[in-house]
Design a protein that fits this description.
Helix content: 40-55%
Organism: Rhodovulum adriaticum (Rhodopseudomonas adriatica)
Shape: elongated
Keywords: DNA recombination
Pfam families: Phage_integrase (PF00589)
CATH class of the largest domain: Mainly Alpha
GO molecular function, one term: DNA binding
Strand content: 5-15%
InterPro entries: DNA_brk_join_enz (IPR011010), Integrase-like_cat_sf (IPR013762), Integrase_catalytic (IPR002104)
Strand order of the largest sheet: 1-2-3
């Protein structure tokens, strides 16, 4: 009597009765010259689900022994290298890592064995366009492609051309983040210590909240500090404001990170953000429009008010020229209003 077919299901996994047992195959299909083509790999799972999972993902990423000629410089190979890189994995928050892995699984489903060198900007744009109804997913997809491309060029030394995903992560919030008002910055003294520390790191470094929150103590080097440009996937050395340097030095060392979860791991963005929201609520309704991201925007305004050029602001914060120009206008309007009112008072 034929036993029931195993209930293990995955994309491209096909079960076939071979006379004595149910046998799994990894099957891909495509159309060539108007004809339907298929290629199958028998997965010798030996009745072991864990072994089947290993063989399946090897086939998905183009690494199975039976795959005759896996493409050099394939997406699957790049993703595998990125996931195994301890330096890359060590600097990512758990939630961020999970988001990237999820998108990479989607990329592997259709492109694991494809040559990255043959990827066109039009193809990436089309893939992102299919996600246009969910802007955050579209942005994450484009960002993940960009990260993998940069990793392959810089870390694996692959002969790739220009990044086909550059500039395609178009998602923006419904309106720009509001920079914090002075009264809210002063109120930081009433916030929990980890909220205070996160806020001062974001404002002092000009980094994205996640990059600031996960900073290590060894990133502060006397007058200088190493800040992370997450979008460009690079580390920059910039001048550290004396107030921030003194604040960090006064914090008790409880681990490798400025905001430690334990001796070797940082606290996560979401834990800090929850604590921030609870504190913000205690400030009343007028604090509700402001987020941790607004501190980064305030950093641009303070630098502009201090007379920094756009190039200098970009060097400190890593913000785009367009974003710097947008928030510079806020600083300019404040200066102009003060000048106008002072002249008005003298007449």
């Amino acid at each position: 009597m034929r036993p029931p077919k195993p209930r293990i299901t995955k994309p491209r996994l096909v079960w076939r009765w071979t006379g004595k047992a149910w046998t799994p195959f990894h099957r891909i299909t495509w159309t060539e010259s108007g004809k339907r083509r298929a290629h199958e790999i028998k997965l010798d799972w030996r009745g072991d689900p864990e072994r089947l999972d290993e063989l399946y993902w090897a086939a998905q990423s183009g690494q199975h022994d039976r795959q005759k000629s896996p493409a050099c410089y394939s997406w699957g190979e790049c993703i595998l290298a990125w996931r195994k890189d301890p330096t890359v994995q060590g600097r990512l928050a758990a939630k961020t890592k999970a988001d990237y892995w999820r998108v990479m699984d989607e990329i592997c489903e259709k492109n694991a064995g494809k040559d990255m060198r043959k990827t066109s900007r039009a193809a990436v744009r089309a893939a992102v366009g299919k996600l246009s109804d969910t802007p955050r997913k579209a942005a994450r997809y484009a960002q993940t492609v960009s990260i993998l491309w940069n990793y392959a060029r810089r870390e694996l030394d692959w002969p790739l051309g220009e990044n086909p995903a550059a500039g395609l992560a178009k998602y923006k919030p419904a309106k720009p983040y509001d920079p914090w008002p002075a009264w809210m910055v002063k109120a930081l003294d009433t916030a929990p210590e980890r909220v205070q520390t996160a806020a001062r790191l974001i404002l002092g470094t000009g980094q994205r909240p996640n990059a600031a929150i996960t900073m290590r103590r060894d990133q502060f080097r006397g007058e200088w500090m190493a800040v992370r440009d997450e979008k460009g996937d690079q580390e920059l050395e910039v001048y550290c404001p004396p107030a921030l340097r003194a604040y960090v030095e006064a914090l008790p060392a409880r681990g490798v990170h400025v905001l430690p979860k334990n001796l070797t791991e940082p606290q996560g963005y979401h834990a800090i953000e929850r604590a921030f929201r609870a504190w913000r609520q205690s400030l009343g309704e007028r604090a509700s429009p402001y987020s941790l991201h607004g501190l980064r925007k305030l950093a641009i305004i303070e630098l502009a008010e201090a007379g920094a050029s756009d190039a200098e602001i970009q060097a400190v914060t890593g913000q785009s020229a367009q974003m710097v120009a947008y928030y510079r206008t806020k600083a300019s309007k404040k200066r102009l209003s003060r000048s106008a009112q002072e002249r008005r008072g003298r007449t």
